From TrEMBL:
Residues 135-260 form the Acyl-CoA thioesterase-like C-terminal domain. The lineage of its organism: Bacteria, Bacillati, Actinomycetota, Actinomycetes, Streptosporangiales. This is TesB-like acyl-CoA thioesterase 5. Residues 25-107 form the Acyl-CoA thioesterase-like N-terminal HotDog domain. Pfam families: 4HBT_3 (PF13622), 4HBT_3C (PF20789).
Length: 266
């Protein structure tokens, strides 16, 4: 897909409806979406719902009710707890009238400029000069994986182990628009379990049921860095955690809950 990318992840149809392009397809099937663009579309809706000057979306949680098809979708959002300084929003994504995603967000007042900056995470590693191509036959690489530009620092999508990568979208989320900082972070964030998995994905299936992204500031620039790792226990489940950074340092965290099972026998 690299030389023939769609114009965007989604084409707007009006009235909160969007046509999903092949760029949204995830690594498991060309007909099912990666949740990165899905999360970005929910974040976009939250930012546009009754905006209040001087506030920002600080946390988004996306609940994945079922696989999201590469098809026409409808997105709605509303404020359920209004407030000048703190507001809770909820949103829903449907396909042919059936809910496939529900999400919530906290929109809070931006801190005063005089607040001392406190960041404990180490600085991100330098942005590599070049990236590494995807050369696996195990996954569908001609969708989201190709619509993003990756520059892996350590680890790999296809090898077990924690990983760190810089990334940016090659196309905007919605055709004709410029992505906001929140949208850029959300579009990348759901890749955490792929970047940080310590399981052999040829043997083990890991699927996240949710995605939570909390940002203590808005990211700066197109390139974002994510360092991710996954914890898993026998008779339990998996938990993926990631740190999000840009050229100025760490700006947020990612958390995913995942089901773990053996890959089905062909």
């Amino acid at each position: 897909m690299d030389g023939d990318l769609p114009e965007a992840f989604y084409e707007p149809l009006g009235g909160g409806r969007f046509a999903s392009t092949p760029a949204t397809a995830g690594p498991w099937s060309p007909s099912l979406q990666h949740a990165g663009p899905v999360a970005g579309l929910m974040g976009r809706a939250f930012e546009r719902t009754d905006p209040v000057p001087g506030t920002r979306v600080a946390r988004v949680t996306v609940e994945i009710l079922s696989p999201v098809p590469v098809a026409e979708l409808e997105v709605t959002a509303r404020v359920v707890r209004p407030g000048r300084r703190i507001a809770l929003l909820e949103g829903e994504m449907t396909h042919e009238g059936r809910p496939v995603v529900r999400a919530t967000a906290w929109r809070i007042a931006a801190a005063p400029a005089e607040v001392p900056e406190t960041v404990h995470a180490p600085a991100a590693p330098p942005l590599p000069a070049t990236g590494r191509p995807f050369t696996t036959s195990q996954m569908h690489a001609d969708g989201y994986l190709s619509a993003m530009e990756w520059r892996l620092v350590e680890g790999s999508f296809f090898e077990p182990g924690p990983g760190t990568t810089w990334a940016r979208a090659r196309v905007p989320l919605v055709a004709g628009e410029t992505d906001s900082p929140l949208v850029r972070a959300l579009t990348l964030a759901d890749s955490a379990s792929g970047v940080g998995s310590q399981l052999d994905l040829a043997k083990w299936m890991i699927i996240n049921t949710d995605l939570t992204v909390a940002l203590h500031r808005d990211p700066v620039g197109e390139w974002l860095c994510m360092g991710a790792s996954l914890s898993v226990s026998p008779h339990g489940s998996a938990l993926c955690e990631a740190t999000l950074s840009d050229g100025h340092g760490e700006f947020g965290r990612v958390l995913q809950t995942l089901i773990v099972d053996e890959q089905p026998t062909p």
